[in-house]
């Protein structure tokens, strides 16, 4: 079953002018960054390994405003969204359409009112796609994304915050990890009581 999560990146997005004769604006930013711990996502923090995109499906990624599929800025299949994986993360360049909403977005970005990126993704949710551990010192769980299944959209977003619905799938993985830890602790206690270790 394909389940999707979204994440926000607090990172500046740029407007660049391109073209010799006829200048036009493009939007450039990073949808995700490698080796950078997120803020607290509701009891856990998250990090993305540099190899996480190696086998990810990036064939039909859409650039959106606020993940709204009615506000399309570009698409990888049409060439109006270019994606590049580099040492920092997943970089995107959007050649936006000449539409009212795109022009309004660019104006808001030039004013500094909108400057955040987000991306929507899915994992296979197997042992190879993510790793969980508990940081006892900070009393927080850490999730490392090792392998994405796909990236479905990159979005320019208005509000730099996560909603609870954005982390619900990851929360399930955290709950499974906690349950497995509890089972291991119970088993170890039982073996100690039986004087087997």
How is the secondary structure organized here?
Layout: E1 5-9, E2 14-18, E3 24-33, E4 44-48, E5 62-65, E6 68-75, E7 81-85, E8 89-94, H1 100-111, E9 116-122, E10 130-135, E11 140-145, E12 150-157, H2 168-193
Parallel strand pairs: 4-11, 5-12
Antiparallel strand pairs: 1-9, 2-3, 3-8, 5-6, 7-8, 9-12, 10-11
How would you describe this protein?
This is Peptidase U35. 19% of the residues lie in helices and 38% in strands. By secondary structure, it is of the alpha+beta class. The protein has one domain. It starts with a strand and ends with a helix. 27% of the residues are buried. About 7% of the residues have low confidence.
Question: What is the string of helix and strand elements?
Answer: EEEEEEEEHEEEEH
What is the makeup of the main sheet?
5 strands, mixed
Q: Tally the helices.
A: 2
Structural class: alpha+beta
Number of strands: 12
Widest sheet: strand ordering: 1-9-12-5-6
Strand content: 35-45%
Mean pLDDT: 81
Structural domains: how many: 1
Helix amount: 10-25%
Task: Kindly list the characteristics that best describe this protein.
197 residues, elongated, alpha+beta, 19% helix, 38% strand, five-stranded mixed β-sheet, 2 helices, four-stranded antiparallel β-sheet
Q: Short summary of the structure?
A:
Keywords: Hydrolase, Protease, Viral release from host cell. The protein is an alpha+beta fold and 197 residues long. Helices cover 19% and strands 38% of the residues.
